[in-house]
Amino acid sequence: MLMLSAVNLASAAPPADHPILGIWKLSLPDLGCSETYRFRADGTTLVTSAEEVSESEYRIPAKPSAKGFYRLEDRIVKDNGKKDCAGAIMKPGTTATNFIRFHPSGALFLMCADETMNTCIGPFERVQGEEA
To answer: pLDDT of 1-21, one tens digit each?
Structure first.
């Protein structure tokens, strides 16, 4: 995990046509749970996971790397202190760096620990017809 300085990540909002923008759902059938991620155009997210509701600031480049991944840097700024699908409680200030790989359709993505497909979660599925 990359520790970020106290820079406001939201200052680097993605372009208006960025594929990350919108609402994404991650179904976790083994846990009987799902998570919803709202990536907003102002560089913030709203995530719901079981009883947890959190907000974060994120930074993502306009274009993927040569390997086809987008580096996603995320810092939690608010959390309601309740447990997520995995039973964890996230703390404000927690940072994470992941690598996003979109399906060519734009309707799915995987979130990976690095720029390989070896350690990924997903698919995250785009939720159509709702605003982020």
So the answer is: 333 444 444 457 899 999 999
